[in-house]
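Notebook, student rotation project (T.W.).
Task set for the rotation: take a protein with a known small-molecule partner, predict the structure of the complex, and write up what can be learned from the model alone. Partner molecule chosen: zinc ion. Sequence and SMILES entered below by T.W., checked by me.
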Amino acid sequence: MRAMLLDQPRRPLREAALADPDPAAGQVLLRVAVCGVCRTDLHVADGDLTEPKLPLVLGHEIVGRVVASGPGAGRFRDGDRVGVPWLGWTCGTCGYCRSGRENLCDRARFTGYQLDGGYAEFAVADERFCFPIPQGYPDAEAAPLLCAGLIGYRALVAAGDAERLGIYGFGAAAHIIAQVARHQGRRVFAFTRAGDDAAQRFARELGAEWAGPSDQSPPEPLDAALLFAPVGALVPAALRAVVKGGVVVCAGIHMSDIPAFSYGLLWGERVVRSVANLTRKDAEDFLRVAPTVPVRTSVEPFALSAANQALDRLRRGELHGAAVLVP
Ligand SMILES: [Zn+2]
Ligand SMILES: [Zn+2]
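Predicted structure of the complex:
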């Protein structure tokens, strides 16, 4: 099969011909229809995340169709359309796994990081960590739901019942979660890089009542803020923007250092927290919610062989919505 391979971080992906993978016990073999490009892929390719398997096939927003099942795998039939997210395997026995927090499992393995992902014509996945894709979503439009959508949704849940919601970084996750937030009756305030008029326009189209640069104060205080931009300086900025008792949720897997800030910004029971990875329940919950909104995703397709261009565009902040690779 054709695949785009990461040999070493900080090097472009290389187009390679690999043997088609064989589904092991409990796994399904998928013909990849599309694979979304996530900011986490960029962090792996750029060496910010330091423990990838190498060489590695990136990609953890896989939409594919089952073409074979390994020994003991019987959850899906050939032809079923399924999605494969970031969480690829957990131990099932540790304290985290047994308390509904498998996202924190120390032995968890992640798709497109410790397990080969979807920048390829075929992929294998543990069937217990695959999800049926809701009907009504074309393949490409479904891909961003699988990470941008469901990790964004986990971040939104962490914001509690906040009515005035700030969203910092208006990319793939934000464009999905803004729709869910509006559907829930929340008010959305979008923060982008200074001068990114296109992103601000995009945010307003998706229901943000205000959109402006991230160094500016919102027109009124926020009840919570979600940070999707990997910029540590936004943490004190967001704390400054939220009311007492407000929560600032850091949703990215990697962030530049957070500058020192005065305790006064945290005082008043403000909370800073992260969300890490996802649980299978997050995926089930979000994939049930998405069609009821209904969440519409904005995607830009690239040929599989153009994966490096898609990553470059994401790195430069030139994508509005989500890039997807089509083998
Ligand atoms: Zn575990
Ligand atoms: Zn992701």
